[in-house]
Amino acid sequence: MEDFEKYHCTYCQEDISGLRIKCAECTDFDLCLQCFSAGAEIGPHKNDHAYQFMVRYFNKNDHAYQFRDARAIEVCFGKGGWSANEEIHLLHAIEQYGFGNWEDISAFIETRSPEEAKEEYIARYMEGSIGRLTWPTAAQSRPNLEDDTPSDNGPLSPRVTSQLPPLDITREEAASLGYMPQRDDFEREYDNSAESLLSPLFINNLEDDDLDVALKLAHVDMYTRRLRERARRKRVVRDFQLVSMYFAQTRKDRGSKKKLSSKEEKEFNDRLRVMSQFHTAQEHEQFLQNLKKARELRIRISELIRYRRNGLTRHEECAHFEQELLDHEEWRERRSGSSGSILSSPSMGQKKKERSDAVLSSTDAKCTFKSNKAPNLNSSGEGVEAAGEPNPPTDISTLQGYHLLSAHEIKLCSSLNLKPSQYMTLKMVLLRDYVNKGPKKEDVVLTPTAGPEKYILHYLVSSGWITAS
Questions:
Q1: Among 194, 202, 271, 378, which is most buried by a count of CB atoms within 10 Å?
Q2: Distance between CA atoms of 128 and 135, rounded to whole angstroms?
Q3: Coil/strand/helix, residue 425
Q4: What is the pTM of this model?
Q5: C-alpha triplet 330, 334, 340: angle, nearest 5°
Q6: Average pLDDT, stretch 31-51?
Q7: How much is the pLDDT for 5?
Q8: How far apart, in whole angstroms, are the C-alpha atoms of residue 248 and residue 295?
Q9: What are the CB-based long-range contacts (under 8 Å, 24+) for 129-135?
Q10: Could you tell me the fold of the domain covering 84-136?
Q11: Strands, E, within 162-269: which ranges?
């Protein structure tokens, strides 16, 4: 006696012992796989009728073989034993929820965990035979899209905004400012009411005429411009680190302090600050450096033109020329009949100061003092006030020639408000005058004449460069 019921193919009349095809529209109509694949038609049956796969399985309860819908049978062999229904649900869930959303995919299948759904899809549809045959073909058939968008080099271009540095602030500072670093947004943005332009707008195709549509589009354009201005200000804040500068005064132990700029540099930077809106931070810094370099070159060119007009063609002749010019002016003063010692007379001392200023003008600066009291020099060459508080030191670290000075000379130039180039010119003139006239002349005697040359001469004597009688 056979353990299962026999079925015959309605078309070829052969026995069906395995998988068979059952027509869902015709009564008692079964086909074998060969006839089904050939598209067999007989009587009222057509090959476009709906059908079901029926498979033989062993029923453990009845201890007998039975046929049922193949979609409910485990048709995938291997780890997990997925049924056809589960595979179909898996593919539908992937299409609906997207790859990676395994929690929702598992809930859609109902019988599998998220880990099982992920492993099955990757193993069978990506790394399996199906994936190896379908993914490369699909990738080759995709059209190659090209970005024809013209390059945007404006202040809001993605090329600029994507390279902006992050804000250097702590969590506490960001919280107090209402700033969200991950979103690069503030709790209260600039022009925070800009969205009110669009909130009451809605499109009604039946009632809106052309004028209403144009008015609403104008509101959208206004809103876009306000958003662009908001984005521009945020870019400036990030690029120039304005938030970090805002909290810089309250920080005590975060990095070294920035070098102090001179008053002249601060005024120069303030005048050109309005130009920063057209540059990035790096471009603006380079712009300022170029302007300063151009100014120095113009000054140097004017010096060289003056030397060439006087017949000088070598750099070593310039110092001798300046000394001879001073000697010539001094001789003219003597010849004019001025009485008393040249350096001890107040009037001659003032003229001596004017001559030294003329030397300093070759570097486009004259020695100026904020106080009428000239600073004295201690044994180390540092400048201090004759009475009261010491002069605030001037930062000369950014000036040309700073690296040529010693530590005492730097302090001396800071206290006298001298540029390094001015100090080296006066020092060269005094040393050449000492070599030409000797230490026993009255020109190297420290006199009460007010002027930068007096304090430089005092420093040269105290440091051993020259000897005074």
A1: 194
A2: 11
A3: helix
A4: 0.38
A5: 110
A6: 90
A7: 61
A8: 31
A9: none
A10: Arc Repressor Mutant, subunit A (1.10.10)
A11: 179-180, 185-186
